[in-house]
């Protein structure tokens, strides 16, 4: 279970890295404010996913204790 968790964390980190690379590549092509907005939206999405993952993890941990 822990290994699966680590794997997922790595995948999300890789995804985040790829997204930031993509944004860097697109910066010259886009207006600056659009890039900032895009980054913020992506960051919010990633944060929401992490929060959901934490909630799920804590729920599973609670069930394991019983």
Poorly predicted sequence stretches spanning 5 or more consecutive residues: none
Number of strands: 0
Order of helical and strand elements: HH
Amount of beta strand: under 5%
| Domain tally | 1
Structural class: mainly alpha
What's the pLDDT, averaged over the residues?
79
Q: Approximately how much helix is present in the residues?
A: over 70%
Distance between the termini: 17 Å
Largest sheet: none
Cα-based radius of gyration, to the nearest Å: 16 Å
| Overall geometry | elongated
Q: Give the number of helices.
A: 2
Concise overview:
The chain has one domain. It contains two helices and no strands. It has helices at residues 2-26, 32-65.
How would you describe this structure to a colleague?
This protein has helices at 2-26, 32-65. With 66 residues, the protein is an all-alpha fold. The longest helix is centred in the C-terminal third of the chain and has 34 residues, at 32-65. It is elongated. The model has no long low-confidence stretch (mean pLDDT 79).
Question: What are the salient characteristics of this protein?
Answer:
66 residues; mainly alpha; 0% strand; elongated
Topology:
Blueprint: H1 2-26, H2 32-65
Helix pairs in contact: 1-2
